[in-house]
Specification:
The structure is a homodimer.
Chain A: H1 3-29, E1 33-39, H2 45-56, E2 62-68, H3 73-82, E3 85-90, H4 99-106, E4 116-120, E5 137-143, H5 150-153, H6 155-159, E6 163-167, H7 179-189, E7 194-197, H8 206-218
Parallel strand pairs in A: 1-4, 1-5, 2-3, 2-4, 5-6, 6-7
Helix pairs in contact in A: 2-3, 2-8
């Protein structure tokens, strides 16, 4: 990549960070907590979110943004299985959401009635990590079938995520997944990361994760 | 995204396409066939490549480019398990390889001695699909744990890939993977796509895929 291109990207990121700070301040003032969920395609984001939202929806008024390049499967899955309002956001081919895209999408909600927003970002371990969405925390998912070496290959994603959730733990034996190594590699990227292990299918670990999220939301 | 940003990206893609055409012509003249392998993180690219290369290495002189944001695990895995030369390429944070990056990386090989190059692109279903690497064909992998709905969400990746390999088919029951739907969705994006189903672990389907690749290489 030429220096010119890098410079354009830097400008983009600076502009995005500014917009993200504004959005975060605006949502704080409205009393809304915002969680950005990131992971590879097919790592179980929608399934986990559905499970977590069903545990949280009696305590909080929740809105969900579902970002994808194309399709609206996930917004339907979330609405149908939780009853909360979910908006599908298309990125016009882009591999991530910017803070501006989030701000635009939030116009679909009555923000006065919301306590909590989840954004399910585009399935991707690279670009979404670079763009601050205006969220209060980043939560990333690493699914067992992907392998425990991913923090070595996708450093930024693990570095920017306060919460790392290892999903599909029921399949660990099939895939020779080493949990100790996964945790070690995650903490090499971010020593402060809180690691959870869940199986949404067998309903393991989701309550523990949910309680941790509640503690974060309440301390906002 | 503002119009300015989109314009910069268009210029980038035009420049990349030009470089890719040049590289393709150059490799053709050298008698080298070039296969670009793309997929999500953890979909089994390195495992499948190792298996395929071990079947091809008596017929062809092979070189492998392993692209990652960070780490050099995959280049070591390929070299150690096949004996062919593998070069690790770091993308400085970028989510894809450009044709220029490929051209630069190929300097590590003696091209006069090569018949076949595999590029294992960065694990990502979005950006790598946008950048022509100068390859003769794109081969994409969709692993069963990711789910059969991925062609609906990541259209371009499936559109640009002549070969779509469904991997980890031994786990289909655990993940309720619907092969008919997967094929239907893949062909919705690219009616000409050749679909293979493999389990590198159980050594199923790899020989069939390999024979198809041989037929492509020989018809170059």
């Amino acid at each position: 990549m030429s220096i010119q291109v890098v410079k354009v990207k830097e400008d983009l990121l600076i502009e995005n960070n500014k917009k993200a700070e504004e959005l975060r301040a605006f949502l704080l003032q409205k009393g809304i907590y915002f969680i950005n969920v990131m992971a590879s395609p097919g790592s179980g984001k929608t399934t986990l979110l559905t499970n977590v939202i069903n545990r949280l929806k009696t305590q909080f008024n929740i809105g969900v943004l579902e970002a994808d390049i194309d399709g609206d499967l996930d917004a339907h899955r979330i609405s149908n299985n939780t009853g909360v309002r979910a908006i599908q956001v298309h990125t016009s081919g882009a591999c991530h959401l910017t803070a501006q895209m989030v701000e635009d999408a939030l116009k679909a909600f009555d923000l006065n009635g919301l306590d909590l927003i989840f954004l399910e970002n585009v399935g991707n371990l690279v670009c979404p990590a670079e763009f601050d969405t205006g969220s209060n925390i980043n939560m990333m998912l690493l699914s067992v079938p992907e392998g425990h070496d991913k923090p070595l290959k996708y450093p930024l994603m693990f570095q920017v995520s306060k919460v790392a959730v290892i999903t599909k733990i029921d399949t660990a034996e099939i895939f020779d997944f080493d949990f100790d190594k996964a945790e070690e590699y995650i903490h090499r990227r971010n020593p402060e990361a809180k690691v959870f292990k869940v199986s949404a299918k067998e309903d393991k670990g989701v309550e523990e994760l949910t309680q941790y999220l509640v503690s974060l939301i309440k301390s906002k």
